[in-house]
Amino acid sequence: MAARQRDKSVYRQGEDGEDGDAARSLDERAALAARAELRGERTGILGATGPTPLAPLPRARRIPDRWSFIYVMERMEQAFHVLGRLPMATRPRGYINSMPIYLYDRGDLNSQLETHELERMARVRNRVRIPPTPAEVARMEEALHWPARFLSGLEDQHLARAVNLAALWTAVDADVERGLRRIKLTRRAFNARRLQGLRIIERELIRRRVPVR
């Protein structure tokens, strides 16, 4: 208990100004951070440039008690999100570029820095694609099968298309107005079809007693 109070007082002194951080050596700061981590505290953890801020905790996925068209819509949007994270090729592999890597000189780098091209290339190279878990893939396959299973009739094909397109556009953050112009449909008619399709899927899930997950 006394060690904990002493560590907190030292950190409080360091927060008052940069003199406290400068007075302590790196070994002392690392020791204080290690003891705080062993105690399970999330404050005072030493990062690359000092104590790291508190990271937001991930929100737990909320599962309702029964099916609703809102939850069906969320499941469809989540399914297209997971589909976009799958490590799969979207087109046949073409010819491979065998040219050596181009080395930029200082003038090229300065020009790229002025046009923000250097930052864009750094974001592309540092992009990390986190693959979905097996549970997410199973939920994705289940949700993507709903329109083809419950809206398979000739009179319901336009409903299935509206449900799939709405979820896809939301997942990829597409331009909805441009998409509606491409399929030659008004927003009011499109939303009516999507809502009707979601309610049919909801009714079939409840009737077949599919567990909510």
What's the topology here?
Blueprint (H helix, E strand, L loop, with lengths): L1 H14 L2 H6 L2 H13 L30 H17 L20 H9 L2 H9 L8 H11 L1 H5 L6 H16 L3 H8 L3 H21 L6
Helix pairs in contact: 4-7, 4-9, 4-11, 9-11
How would you portray this structure in words?
With 213 residues, this protein is mainly alpha-helical. The chain has two domains: 1-57, no CATH class; 69-88 and 131-207, no CATH class. 61% of the residues lie in helices and 0% in strands. The protein contains eleven helices and no strands. Helix 4 crosses helix 7, helix 4 (69-85) crosses helix 9 (157-172) and helix 9 crosses helix 11 (187-207). The radius of gyration is 27 Å and the shape is extended.
Core attributes:
extended, 213 residues, single chain, mainly alpha
% residues in beta strands? under 5%
The succession of helices and strands, N to C, reads HHHHHHHHHHH
Biggest sheet record: none
Evaluate the radius of gyration. Answer: 27 Å
Task: Give the termini separation.
Answer: 44 Å
Shape: extended
Helical percentage: 55-70%
List the uncertain runs: 10-21
The average pLDDT value, as a whole number, equals: 79
Structural class: mainly alpha
Strand tally is 0
Q: What is the helix tally? A: 11
Question: How many separate structural domains?
Answer: 2
